[in-house]
Write a structure and sequence with these properties.
mainly beta; 4-stranded antiparallel sheet; globular
């Protein structure tokens, strides 16, 4: 990578490129306004319009309009206090420009974001969990849904177990899977919480084979798809993991996959289909090597 990425927003764009936006440049906490796109076909990076509000640990998702939304996050170098964790900005890939959106109702960082469409085809971006350093405790159960067509937020059913530093992705079944995380009572949990947007209800999932916080995840699209979780921190000493596991919603089972080349936490992940139709998962940045790009698939 041209610049280290740690707790950045990482999203597969509608143009087949992977976008790595803002975040820290390493464990020192130095923030960056970086907006870079990786082209898997050409193995090249391109610098794009910088984000107006740099922050670490934001939620990031591709909207139904093709824009990338960066939601919340910590816009200060200090991890102790921040009062501006409600900023939402949208990046227009075609015009290479940013737009400020309606603020996140519950300011937070270390949250997750996922986009899911309902049966009518209307898509919402869900902002899940996280933490606010200005509030007591270190894990929120808040779930709020953003509608890009109306630039509005609505509150949905709270997550049963409050968490931050988890990872989440939309599954091939249209549900959102929240995996691992931490709060004031537990560290590096292997919990799986499943949200059904159609019913606005949560259900427990089969626990992961390993506990983690600050892992990254991606999904293999289609009816036969799986959810893949990679890396994270697996102890109070913040030791990076090289573990990888895949969950199959149809069989409700987990399986181990080959380990990462480089153990990592705080990385981003995205799934991209190559020209020959093969699916590849890219794991980008994180610690201990925030410039590392790892590819799995074929």
């Amino acid at each position: 990578m041209m610049e280290p990425a740690f707790f950045a927003g990482t999203v597969a764009g509608s143009d087949g490129r992977i976008y790595v936006i803002t975040g820290s440049t390493g464990e020192s906490g130095e923030l960056t306004s970086r907006n870079s796109a990786y082209d898997p076909e050409r193995d090249t990076w391109t610098k794009l319009a910088p984000i107006p509000t740099p922050r670490s640990e934001p939620g990031a998702a591709l909207g139904p309009d093709g824009n990338i939304y960066i939601i919340g996050g910590n816009p200060t170098r200090s991890r102790q206090q921040s009062s501006k964790m409600n900023v939402v900005e949208a990046y227009d890939l075609k015009n290479n420009q940013w737009t400020r959106c309606k603020p996140l109702p519950t300011p937070r960082t270390a949250l997750c974001a996922a986009t899911v469409s309902d049966k009518s085809g209307h898509a919402f971006i869900y902002a899940i969990g996280g933490r606010n350093f200005d509030m007591p405790g270190n894990g929120l159960s808040t779930l709020e849904a953003y509608d890009p067509t109306t630039d509005s937020w609505t509150t949905r059913s709270a997550m049963p177990i409050n968490l931050h530093a988890m990872t989440a992705t939309a599954g091939p079944d249209g549900k959102i899977y929240v995996l691992g995380g931490t709060n004031s009572r537990t560290d590096d949990t292997n919990l799986v919480q499943v949200y059904d947007p159609e019913t606005d209800r949560w259900a427990p999932g089969i626990p992961m084979p390993f506990g983690q916080e600050c892992a990254c995840s991606a999904f293999i699209p289609g009816h036969n798809g799986e959810i893949v979780v990679m890396g994270g921190w697996g102890s109070l000493e913040k030791i990076s993991l090289d573990l990888v596991a895949a969950y199959n919603p149809r069989t409700d089972t987990w399986r181990r996959l080959p380990k990462l080349i480089t153990a990592t936490a705080g990385a981003g992940a995205a799934t991209v289909k190559s020209a020959d139709g093969a699916l590849h998962i890219y794991v980008i940045g994180g610690t201990p090597d925030p410039t590392c790009v790892q590819e799995y698939g074929g």
